[in-house]
Input
Amino acid sequence: MRIFDPHIHMTSRTTDDYEAMHAAGVRALVEPAFWLGQPRTSVGSFLDYFDSLIGWEPFRAAQFGIRHHCTIALNPKEANDPRCAEVLQHLPRYLPKDGEVAVGEIGYDSMTPEEDEAFAAQLQLAVTHDLPALVHTPHRDKAAGVERTLAVVKESGIAPERIVVDHLNEVTVRQVVDSGCWMGFSIYPDTKMDERRMVAVLREFGTERILVNSAADWGRSDPLKTRLTGDAMLAAGFAPDDVDTLLWRNPVAFYGQSGKLELDGSDAPGADATYEGNSVLRGVRAEV
Amino acid sequence: MTPDDLRTALTDRMTQKGWRWLTGACASAAADPAVVRGLFPLAGRRCGRVRLDPGDPYGWTVEDAARCLLLAAMPLTGSPLLEEIGALYRTGDAAERRAVLRALPLLPVGDGALPLVRDALRTNDTRLIAAALGDYATDHLDAETYRQGVLKCVFTGIPLTALPGLPGRADVQLARMMAAFAHERSAAAREVPADIRPILARYPDVPVPGHGDLADIPTATTDHTGNREA
Output
């Protein structure tokens, strides 16, 4: 089973996790910029974090045979701290970087006016930089948050297929399915969403435009939840090809829209495959 | 490496489209060095990333060479040049930082870029450490920092053959440090990388504690995938 985890915070994880992920089949991942549990109080603290996402963490992942990409943004929670708002001015120099494949995580935490402003501004950055966007939905008052998220996305003019609305569940998926946006599901060890419920969602909605991630971070979480979801699908009678669509081809298709996904050098079988006629390996090949 | 050497090395390794981009980018950089800030991150995507020597994981890549040509095209000297490359390094990803380090011997910066070398040597990214210990460090870096850099290579699994300054910059202090390293490794019943031997061999008077004779040291080739303990 080849696995691309489209949302995992490796900065918070250990080398044991990297080893276990590789053994489970993870060959590529995307690490979105988010908050670190401890609030930041200055712009410099963000920039060091962003530098790590385009420098040290990809190096660390490569030691374990895993391709690391990232998304960069001012996250909604910290968008509420006026000391951090200046981060927005620094994003244009990070968004053109090679390993940077989307703007994110953006969206709502508590649905404040400050979050409105940062969300709209960063959707425009995604348009300007020709990047997809990863949109976090609030864990509290989720249905209202998803509704407001979809309205803001629509108003921004960004193409819906360039948006993933993340952290959905059985209720909120119904709001997103007709929007044209991608639907993200974070599989947690506790109640928010688990692999058995995910299989039920897949039975109802299929695998099209669906991304499954572990969202593993510094909280109670499990970096192998992608693999466990694949196993649960097979046990429930899904074909291996369905699992491959969900856990590899879908994230490749979504983040491939950045034109910056680089999967050569990963030893995943079929890493040089094409999606809808387009190579996902968009880096210019030398004609030796 | 001169800019002409780099162009020669790139000759068969870039597409015509890549060459057109690079030629245009260098012309733009010559006219207005500030444009390099926008062009620098694009070099890998436009020109490619293959290694110039496929067998050398610490050697130059196409994107390294392309970025060096961009930097060499900037009509800057003195502090404006140092400020520009300092900013490109600070705002760069790992590949961009590596390219700035590789370009230093091509640029009229004197000793002024040593802070960038020291910054890279403080990281634990072997690509940056190896690039920091290139020709510029060989010519400009003080002995103490150079020795610590060499020792860091040994600990992080960078083969010492990747350092153009060795064995020329080896001194008796470095030999003593390598002897102590060999002693620690052999006391732990671990293998000693073979590539420290040329340094020890230059200073036969430096004792390797625990070993009467250099030939007794159990050796191993450097583990290129190591980097677990630095």
